TrEMBL record, chains A, B:
Organism of provenance: Methylobacterium oxalidis
Highest taxon above the source species: Bacteria
GO molecular function: DNA-binding transcription factor activity
Name this protein carries in UniProt: Transcriptional regulator
Residue span, HTH arsR-type domain: 16-98
Stretches of the chain forming a coiled coil according to its record: none
SMART domains the record matches: HTH_ARSR
Length: 121, 121
DNA sequence: CCCATAGTTCTGAATTTCGGAACTAACGGA
DNA sequence: TCCGTTAGTTCCGAAATTCAGAACTATGGG
């Protein structure tokens, strides 16, 4: 099977990255791929939080991430290996990904913690 | 005059910011507001590049930016003053805005300035 | 009061996104 | 080899979003 299309790093556009990561589900998928040693099977992220994502939606999410230049996908037998392209993107747009993922990390905690009553603020 | 709704800075969500800035036109508007001493009338940005933006679209772009927490708008007589909320956003999501605007700045140039050497790896 | 200016809201059309169902590719077992 | 299972893609209609023209509102000037 021919390899999927991936944009060259110099063709990667900021608007594509922002659009891809402006969806919390995609951002969560990307976070998972990035932190999980940059390799992950598609089906391993079949849910975000407690929300189950249908296969077809998952497939298109991966497509968006791939075409935005954020991940690299290759078939390995019956499944897909997804590598993050963090390093390349970091070289092209310094600080972008870490700022975005950091923003999500920072926003993720407060509200949830406040409602749950867990953190003695 | 009743002030328009603006989210408190702690209610600002990363996905809203990314979505707002994932549109190059909005990113350009925001860049203009940010750099122009953080004050600008709506009609002063009636075009992006050589593309003229209709009033209604412009209005909704400003609304998106405002509701994302990126700008603060107040009526002054018949026109609108738009202040950037850079400082607040920077405090909440350190490095986010500068990374994004830097990415756009870096992407905007390359095609034209490719002969500057170094980047064509 | 009437008009001009600046911006908003309404509305329908075009585009995008979502998700179920059917389809394809790769492997394992008999 | 053939069949079944698993992993993921594609197709297609419904829902949501975006776009832009037209009408409307608010403010200030003469």
């Amino acid at each position: 099977m021919r390899p999927l299309f991936h944009p060259a790093i110099e063709d990667v556009q900021p608007e594509a990255i922002l659009h891809a990561l402006s969806d919390p589900a995609r951002a969560a998928i990307f976070a998972k791929i990035s932190t999980a040693g940059c390799v992950e099977a598609c089906s391993a992220v079949s849910s975000v939080g407690d929300r189950v994502i249908p296969k077809s939606s998952l497939s298109s999410h991966f497509k968006v991430l791939r075409e935005a230049g954020l991940i690299r996908c290759e078939r390995h037998g019956v499944e897909m290996r997804n590598h993050s392209r963090c390093a390349e993107v970091e070289a092209r747009f310094p600080g972008l990904l870490s700022a975005i993922m950091g923003a999500y990390a920072r926003a993720g905690a407060p509200r949830v913690a406040a409602q749950k009553g867990g953190t003695a603020a």
